[in-house]
Design a protein that fits this description.
By secondary structure, the chain is α/β, with parallel strands linked by helices. Helices cover about 30% and strands about 20% of the residues. A hairpin with a 4-residue loop joins strand 8 and strand 9 (about 190).
């Protein structure tokens, strides 16, 4: 049976952040989601981690957290991680991030080094230095994403046979749909609006999003887990945005490239995601 998290709110950096805290013991695992997702996307990974404490949160602009108007600065996500870690009194946790969350947890670990003892980065959106030149400007289709829904069930039925969701673990897709919507006057809307989601994607290649100088200061073990599917214009959502030799940029980095999984590895196999987290925990 899946553990139910304790829900709370924390005020940091002038905004409210919604927390999901799965109670447990041992070294905690701190989880950061991708653009457009929410804390409860980690539900099945937390279940696989048994009685270990797991903490996740809705990033600004997402879920039940505050939603400032665009544009969105990627550094703010990392600053929020650092502020949350300090507010929670976190020490020696394993930081886990997927996609944008990988960028966020990396910057957060650099800003608050005592909070984390290791990082596991699932296909993080951390690019080569020369790729940070300005807005991405490939997000027109995201801004046009369907926003209104009658229910989470309708959302699930629409997505379950469509890529990239058709390769997801069914319960992860359920968890995503169940927590992706916010009540509106007529039905529901996406808790992370298409406007905000598109703004966040645009910021992924902004000059300010380059965190390589912070990466150079990180001395804890870091495992980069990449999809072997390389980014191309025909498959923007499923292929890897990660700098191929990113692990070498960390003082204690290791790399795994998995051809059988897409960019959404934690959604496709929460069992494998949890296994890789446990492997890192056993090294500490």
């Amino acid at each position: 049976m899946t553990r139910a998290p304790v829900e709370s709110r924390v005020r940091i950096n002038g905004i409210d952040i919604a927390l999901s805290d799965w109670p447990g013991h041992g070294r905690p695992v701190f989880l950061c989601h991708a653009t457009g997702f929410h804390a409860r996307i980690w539900e099945q990974v937390a279940a696989q981690l048994g009685e270990r404490r797991c903490i996740a949160f809705d990033a600004r602009g997402h879920g039940r957290s505050s939603k400032p108007a665009p544009p969105y600065d990627w550094r703010d996500f990392g600053r929020d991680v650092a502020a949350l870690a300090e507010s929670l009194g976190l020490g020696g946790a394993v930081g886990v991030g997927h996609s944008m969350g990988g960028h966020s947890i990396t910057l957060g670990a650099a800003l608050q080094p005592s909070a984390f003892s290791a990082l596991v980065l699932f296909d993080p959106v951390i690019r080569a230095k020369d790729r940070y030149r300005g807005p991405w400007n490939k997000t027109g289709y995201i801004a046009k994403r369907r926003n209104r829904w009658t229910s989470a069930q309708e959302m699930f039925e629409r997505f379950e046979n469509r890529p990239p969701f058709d390769s997801w673990h069914r319960q992860v897709l359920r968890d995503y749909c169940d927590h992706a919507l916010a009540p509106a006057e007529e039905g529901f809307v996406l808790a992370c609006s298409p406007e905000i989601e598109a703004s966040i994607y645009d910021g992924s290649t902004a000059v300010e999003s380059n965190i390589h100088s912070e990466i150079a200061t990180i001395r804890i073990p870091v495992h980069v887990v990449r999809s072997g599917r390389h980014l191309d214009s025909s498959n923007l959502m499923g292929s890897s945005p990660t700098m191929p030799d990113l692990a070498a940029c960390f003082a204690r980095g290791t790399d795994s490239c998995l051809d059988e999984y897409s960019h959404f590895l934690p959604m496709e196999s929460p069992e494998l995601a949890a296994k890789l987290i446990v492997e890192m925990l056993t090294l500490l």
